[in-house]
C-alpha cells in the first residue's frame, strides 16, 4: 500500500472531477488510516466508498472521525443554565441515532455499525466553545504503511449527496510535495482530536448511542431484511405518500405522533423533486411558532437546499424580507391578524401565480383556521397555491359546519386519520389512568344558570335572540367555574399528592385558577400560574423541572411537547371533544427516560340531575374507554 503511487491533483472540483472515483476510493485502497474532521457526517458516505472501503478494512485500516452534533436552542439553553455540555451532546446524539440510523437500515448504516463493532472506527464529537453554531471544519488525512500521508481540505461534507450531487471542491497537500501545508493540517487534526484546540470542546462518542446503533444493526442482520423506520411510525410514511399524491388535504394525526416531522418530510420531498421554492407555515400561538422555528433550525440542512427561515409574529417582523428574497425560503407566520396588520393574508397576496404554484402552505392546528374572523380574512387567498397541507389532532370543528366547510375549501379534505387510540395501541403514546371526580352544582351555580336563561328570553323579546352556541358557552362557563369542584379536588389530591408532580391543571379563568392555586399550595411549593399575559420563561422553567405543577387557562392546549409530563387535571372541559383531546395529549407523550410511563387524567363529572346523560358523562365514558387501552405493539 503506497499513497505515492497515486498521481494527485492539487485540487478536485465536482463538475470537473469525480471526487469519489478520482480521490477518495484510490486513497482508501492504499491507506492504512483515514482521519476525518467534518461538520456533517452521514453513513451514506460509506455507501459511496464502495468496495475500496472493504479493502481498507481487510488491510487493517482504521478511521478516526471528528464530527459535530447540531444542538437545538433548547439544548443550548440547558447548557447555559448549568447542564453538562457533554450530557446534552450525548442526548442529542442518541436522538439522532434513534431517528436517522434506524430509519431503513441501508448499507451505509450497516457498514458504520460493523466498523464500530470491529473497533475500526473511533468517533469524537466536537462542539464550539462559544456561540450557537456547529463545528464545521472540513479536513482529512490518509496515511499508508510507509509513513507517507496526504492531507486535504475544502467544502465537501462526508455524505453521499455531498460527494455525488453537491458542487464541491477540495484542495490536496501531499507530505512529499507540500510538506509544510500537509503538516499544518495534520497538526490541526491532532489538536482537535486531543481536545487541545482552543476553539472546540471534544467528547468521545457516547457509549449509549454506540450500543443503540449496534442494536439496530443486529436487528436487521437477524431478519436478513432492511427494517423500516420503527414500525410504530409507519403512519408517517403513509401520510407522506398520500399527500404527495393528493397535493391538498388535512392529516388527522394524534398529538405526539409526529405531525411536525411528517410535514418536514413532505417539505423535503417537494424540495428534492424541485416542485417548490417557498413554504409558508401558519398557526396560532407564539409558543408553537417558536417550537417550529427551533425544529426548522435543527433540521434545515436535511431539507436539501438549506432554505432561509423568516418569522413574522410577535416581535419578529420579517415578512418584507421574505417577500424580497430570491432563494428558497420558509416563512413562519401567525394566523392572528386584524384590519391593520395581517401578515399571513399579506404573504399570500404577494405570491404571484407562478410563485403560488411553487409554494407549500402548511396550516398547523388547522381546526383554528375555521374561526369566523380567519375565514373573513383568508377567503380566496390560497386558491392559486398548489400544495396545501393541514395538520391537527382534531381537524373537525364540532358544531361548526361553516368552519369545517371553509377548512376543506381552503386546504382540502381529511386525507388520513391516525387517532389517539391507534397511537396508544401502537406504543407511540403512553396509556393512562382515568380519575373521574363526581360533583353536584351548588345553589349559586343554579342561580347563575337561571340568569343565562333570563338573558336568553330577554334577548329574544328584544328581537336579538342568542344563538344556540352563545347559550351553550354561557352555561358551560357556569359548569367550568363551579365552586363545588374545589372541595372535591382538595379531598382527592390530599390522598394522591404524587399526581401534582409534573402536572398541568387546566382552568377556565384566572380568578378560578387562583382558587385552585390556594389548594395546590397546601401540598407543594414548586408551582406557578401560566396565563395569557405571562412570560413564556415560566414554561421553560416547567419544562426543565424547576416547577412541578402549572396552572393555566388555554395556552398549553396545543402543540407543546413536554415528554416528562405525567398528569393533566381538567377543571375546564369543553363540550366538544376537540379541546379534551388536545389537553390530555399533553401528558400522553412517551418519555424516553420513563419507557413504562402510565399517565393520569383527572376529570370532573357533573351529576346527571335528571338528564338522561349530560356532556360530562359522555366525555367520561369516552375517556374511560381510552384509559382501558394498552400497547398492542412492542415499541421499537
Question: Can you give a write-up of this model?
Answer:
The protein is of the alpha/beta class and 636 residues long. 42% of the residues lie in helices and 19% in strands. The chain contains 25 helices and 22 strands. Strands 1-7-6-5-2-3-4-8 form an eight-stranded mixed β-sheet, with helices on both faces. An eight-stranded mixed β-sheet has the order 12-11-13-10-14-15-9-16, sandwiched between helices. Helix 4 packs antiparallel against helix 5 and helix 19 (443-461) runs antiparallel to helix 20. It is elongated. The two termini are 43 Å apart. The relative contact order is 0.09.
Key descriptive features of the protein:
single chain; 636 residues; alpha/beta; Endonuclease, Chain A; Rossmann fold; eight-stranded mixed sheet; 22 strands; ATP binding
Low-confidence stretches: 100-106, 225-230
DSSP strand tally: 22
* Overall residue-averaged pLDDT value: 81
> Structural class from helices and strands?
alpha/beta
What would the CATH topology of the largest domain be?
A: Endonuclease, Chain A
Strand order in the sheet with the most strands: 1-7-6-5-2-3-4-8
**What characteristic shape results from the CA principal axes?**
elongated
Question: What's the CATH class of the largest domain, please?
Answer: Alpha Beta
Radius of gyration, in angstroms, nearest whole number? 29 Å
- Tally of separate domains: 3
Secondary structure elements and pairings:
Layout: E1 11-13, H1 19-30, E2 33-38, H2 44-49, H3 51-58, E3 62-68, H4 73-80, H5 85-101, H6 107-118, E4 121-128, E5 138-143, E6 149-154, H7 160-164, E7 169-174, H8 179-194, E8 200-204, H9 207-223, H10 234-246, E9 248-253, H11 259-272, E10 278-283, H12 286-299, E11 308-313, E12 316-317, H13 319-324, E13 329-334, H14 343-349, H15 353-357, E14 359-364, H16 372-378, E15 387-392, H17 401-410, E16 414-418, H18 420-425, E17 432-439, H19 443-461, H20 468-480, H21 485-494, E18 503-506, H22 510-520, E19 527-530, H23 537-544, E20 549-552, E21 567-570, H24 577-584, E22 599-606, H25 615-627
Parallel strand pairs: 2-3, 3-4, 9-15, 9-16, 10-13, 10-14, 11-13, 14-15, 17-22, 18-20, 18-21, 19-20, 21-22
Antiparallel strand pairs: 1-7, 2-5, 4-8, 5-6, 6-7, 11-12
Amino acid at each position: 500500500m503506497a499513497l505515492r503511487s497515486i498521481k494527485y491533483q492539487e485540487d478536485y472540483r465536482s463538475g470537473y472531477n469525480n471526487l469519489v472515483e478520482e480521490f477518495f476510493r484510490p486513497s482508501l485502497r492504499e491507506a492504512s488510516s483515514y482521519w476525518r474532521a467534518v461538520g456533517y457526517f452521514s453513513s451514506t458516505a460509506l455507501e459511496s466508498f464502495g468496495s475500496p472501503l472493504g479493502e481498507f478494512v481487510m488491510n487493517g485500516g482504521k478511521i478516526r472521525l471528528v464530527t459535530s452534533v447540531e444542538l437545538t436552542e433548547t439544548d443550548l439553553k440547558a447548557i447555559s443554565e448549568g447542564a453538562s455540555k457533554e450530557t446534552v451532546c450525548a442526548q442529542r446524539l442518541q436522538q439522532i441515532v434513534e431517528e436517522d440510523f434506524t430509519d431503513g437500515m441501508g448499507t451505509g448504516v450497516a457498514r458504520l455499525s460493523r466498523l464500530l463493532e470491529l473497533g475500526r472506527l473511533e468517533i469524537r464529537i466536537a462542539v464550539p466553545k462559544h456561540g450557537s453554531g456547529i463545528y464545521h471544519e472540513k479536513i482529512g488525512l490518509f496515511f499508508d504503511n510507509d509513513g507517507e500521508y496526504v492531507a486535504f481540505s475544502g467544502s465537501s461534507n462526508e455524505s453521499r449527496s455531498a460527494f455525488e450531487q453537491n458542487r464541491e471542491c477540495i484542495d490536496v497537500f501531499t507530505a512529499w510535495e507540500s510538506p509544510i501545508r500537509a503538516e499544518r493540517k495534520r497538526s490541526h487534526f491532532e489538536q482537535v482530536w486531543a481536545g487541545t484546540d482552543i476553539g472546540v470542546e471534544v467528547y468521545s462518542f457516547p457509549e449509549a448511542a454506540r450500543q443503540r446503533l449496534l442494536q439496530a444493526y443486529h436487528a436487521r442482520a437477524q431478519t436478513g431484511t432492511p427494517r423500516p423506520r420503527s414500525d410504530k411510525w409507519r403512519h408517517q410514511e403513509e401520510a407522506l405518500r398520500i399527500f404527495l399524491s393528493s397535493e391538498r388535504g388535512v392529516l388527522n394525526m394524534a398529538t405526539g405522533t409526529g405531525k411536525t416531522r411528517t410535514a418536514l418530510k413532505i417539505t423535503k420531498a417537494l424540495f428534492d423533486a424541485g416542485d417548490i421554492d417557498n413554504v409558508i407555515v401558519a398557526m396560532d400561538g407564539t409558543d408553537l411558532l417558536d417550537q417550529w422555528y427551533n425544529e426548522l433550525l435543527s433540521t434545515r440542512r436535511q431539507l436539501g437546499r438549506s432554505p432561509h427561515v423568516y418569522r413574522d409574529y410577535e416581535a419578529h417582523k420579517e415578512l418584507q424580507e421574505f417577500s424580497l428574497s430570491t432563494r428558497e425560503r420558509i416563512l413562519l407566520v401567525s394566523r392572528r391578524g386584524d384590519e391593520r396588520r395581517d401578515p399571513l393574508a399579506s404573504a399570500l397576496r404577494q405570491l404571484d401565480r407562478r410563485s403560488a404554484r411553487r409554494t407549500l402552505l402548511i396550516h398547523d392546528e388547522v381546526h383554528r383556521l375555521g374561526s369566523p374572523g380567519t375565514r373573513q380574512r383568508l377567503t380566496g387567498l390560497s386558491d392559486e397555491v398548489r400544495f396545501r397541507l393541514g395538520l391537527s389532532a382534531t381537524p373537525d370543528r364540532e358544531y361548526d359546519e361553516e368552519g369545517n366547510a371553509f377548512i376543506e375549501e381552503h386546504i382540502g379534505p381529511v386525507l388520513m386519520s391516525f387517532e389517539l387510540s391507534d397511537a396508544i395501541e401502537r406504543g407511540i403514546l403512553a396509556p393512562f389512568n382515568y380519575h373521574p371526580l363526581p360533583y353536584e352544582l351548588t345553589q349559586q351555580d343554579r342561580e347563575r344558570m337561571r340568569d343565562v336563561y333570563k338573558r336568553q328570553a330577554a334577548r329574544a323579546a328584544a328581537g336579538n335572540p342568542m344563538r344556540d352556541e352563545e347559550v351553550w358557552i354561557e352555561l358551560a362557563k357556569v359548569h367550568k367555574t363551579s365552586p363545588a369542584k374545589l372541595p372535591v379536588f382538595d379531598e382527592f389530591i390530599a390522598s394522591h399528592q404524587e399526581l401534582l408532580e409534573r402536572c398541568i391543571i387546566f382552568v377556565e379563568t384566572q380568578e378560578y385558577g387562583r382558587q385552585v392555586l390556594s389548594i395546590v399550595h397546601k401540598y407543594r411549593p414548586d408551582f406557578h400560574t401560566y396565563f395569557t399575559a405571562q412570560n413564556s420563561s415560566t414554561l421553560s422553567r416547567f419544562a426543565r423541572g424547576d416547577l412541578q405543577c402549572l396552572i393555566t387557562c388555554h395556552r398549553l392546549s396545543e402543540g407543546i411537547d413536554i415528554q416528562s409530563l405525567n398528569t393533566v387535571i381538567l377543571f375546564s372541559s369543553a363540550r366538544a371533544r376537540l379541546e379534551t383531546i388536545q389537553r390530555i395529549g399533553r401528558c400522553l407523550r412517551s418519555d424516553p427516560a420513563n419507557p413504562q410511563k402510565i399517565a393520569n387524567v383527572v376529570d370532573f363529572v357533573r351529576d346527571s340531575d335528571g338528564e338522561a346523560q349530560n356532556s360530562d358523562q359522555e366525555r367520561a365514558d369516552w375517556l374511560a374507554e381510552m384509559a382501558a387501552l394498552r400497547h398492542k405493539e412492542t415499541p421499537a
